Each structure stands twice: as structure tokens, then as C-alpha cells.
Amino acid sequence: MPIHTSLTQRLGLSCPIVQAPMAGGADTADLVAAVGEAGGIGFVGAAYLTPDQIAERARAIRSRTSCPFGINLFAPLPATAMPEAEEVAAAVARIARYHADLGLPAPGTPSLGADGFAAQMAAALDSGASAFSFTFGIPSADALAAIKARGMLLMGTATSVEEAVALERAGMDAVIAQGAEAGGHRGSFATGPEEVDFAAGLVGTMALVPQVVDAVNLPVVASGGIMDGRGIAAALALGAAGVQMGTAFLTCAEAGIPEVHKRAILDARETQTRVTRAFSGRPARGIVNRVMDDIPDDDALPFPLQNALTRPMRTAAAQQGRAEFLSLWAGQGVRLARRQTAAELMARLVGETDTVVRRLSGDA
Fold this sequence. Notes:
By secondary structure, the protein is of the alpha/beta class. The chain has helices at about 5-10, 30-35, 50-60, 85-100, 115-125, 140-150, 160-170, 205-215, 230-235, 245-250, 260-265, 290-295, 305-320, 340-360, and strands spanning about 15-20, 40-45, 70-75, 130-135, 155-160, 175-180, 185, 220-225, 240-245, 275, 285. It is globular and about 65 Å long.
């Protein structure tokens, strides 16, 4: 029983499954291509990639498939003010003990790098992607117009109805409704002069999706805690045009995360994830480990300073298989994670969804 939605029709997909962008290397060319070949659409989380790396990743995907794929970037954030020297020194000292455990030199003081968004976006526009999504907010009207001029499906991430309405007003083609269960960074952003209230943005997928569906006249993609066909069918029943899944793909053979991260997901329970600022400075959900236990959110530097400060630690931890120092991003559906190839996962998801839909419609 093929499922056709506005999302599948616009992108030429055979199933309404989006492999979430996972900046940091998880979404390899092999993974993105395999999802596309199986009838869904894979995304490249390009926020940490240089323009040359974006172009290379796109070429690698195109060498493996002619199916649609997507690119994701972080929307430009307001300028980060450099914290007081004492605050920075304290943050560096907290990370220094981990460097010692990993055999690394003492960490240096992080600095604010140059804004590379314009160059990243230019590379993404030339990538041949069929879809372009954003996290953390809304880029400029000129940026959105450039994307639409290329015929790409334009998607924004919302964690509240207010954010979804703002995305629709900005001209997005679809909204990704990110529930609190989702792994990785929260997509919350300010829709007015007030600061972002991240705690208020922790609305569960089951509650968020139908409210967003009712509030906007755009296709809504459900994200957060969806790991199998039951979750896909539930999202469709709530009015979603598709689902975005991240954690389910992290334990696939093609995923580019370290083996120790995959093992942590496979061994974790649903109660063992938490939203933290310890690794990047922005709230993100991951499996609780030593760093998350040690560093309260108030002690983390703002993004992207904390991200820059912890990057050498995370890189060394991945090489050494030290889970206690890694950002073990994962959602609350971890018990449903399985070891398999992306093709096997996609086939299972399609089969499970079909079984659920048939059962609920009385055909099974």
C-alpha cells in the first residue's frame, strides 16, 4: 500500500521518510545515497563543512545515486558576545582535565571564527540538492529567494506553533515539527525580541505535530522519537506529510559515527538521554555521560564558543573509543535502535508502516 503525500509528490519519493541531517559526519554519502535509493530522501548536515567539503559530499552522493537528496545548514544566529575572561578561563579549566585523561595538550582559549554562512550556502546551492532545510531560525529573505530560484524544496525547523507560523510567513515550503524526544540540537529560535525559552520548547511530538498542522497551510514533517512503522503511521494519522528520523539511522552500517557511539545507543534506555549545553553551548539531546554529569548548563560557554572548546576533546575521544567524552546525540526512542544497513532499515520501515495502516483500516 504505497503512501502518497504532498512531500512524496513534490520530491518524487516512494515513501515519506526523511533521514535527518546530522552535522558532524554521521550522514555519510553512503547513508544519504542508500536512503534515496530506497525511496526516501537523505540529508547532509553541512553546518560544520567547508564549501569545498559540501561540494565534495554532493559529488560523492551523485556518484552513488541519481535520487533526490537534501542539504541542511544552521541559520545565521545573532552575534555572540565574548563572555568575561574569568568565565572563559573557568570553562577552559573544566575541559583541561578531560584533555589530560585523553593525553591531549591543554586546551586553548576558544575564539569566534569568521561567519562562513554565505560561502556554505553558495556551495549548497550548487550541490544539485533537491531540498534545503534550516535549523536554529530563518535566514534572510535574499537567501530564501536564492534557494527558491533553484527550485529546491525549502524547509525550516520549528519546536513550537509560533515558530512554525513564523516559518510559513517567511516563505518556507514545509515545516519540520521537532518534538522534545528528538536527538541532537534543539531547533528553537526567537520569533520576537525576547530570548529563546528552550525549556518551553520541549513539546512532545504527539502534542506538537497536530497543533502545527492546524496552524499552518504547509506540509508538516514530524520529527522526534520516531523509530519504526508504528511511529510513521502515528505521524501520518496526526496530519503529517512525512517523518524525519535521525537516531534510527545512527546505528546503520553506513552511519559515520564512531562504533562506541553506536554501541551507546544500542545499550541505552529511554530514560538515559538528557538535553544539555555542555558540548556545544546550545541545548541538544544525548545519552548521559561523564561530561554531561560534570558540566551544568550554566557553566557552558555560548554557542559556538563551547563547541569550539570541546571539539579537540570530542575528536580524540572518537579516535580512542572514549564514550565518556563524546557528544552521544540520540533521541528517546533508543530502545528501538537496531544494527542493519540503511536499505534494510528502509525496507523494514516501509513494511511496518504498511502493516499498521492495513490493520487500522481493517484490511489485515
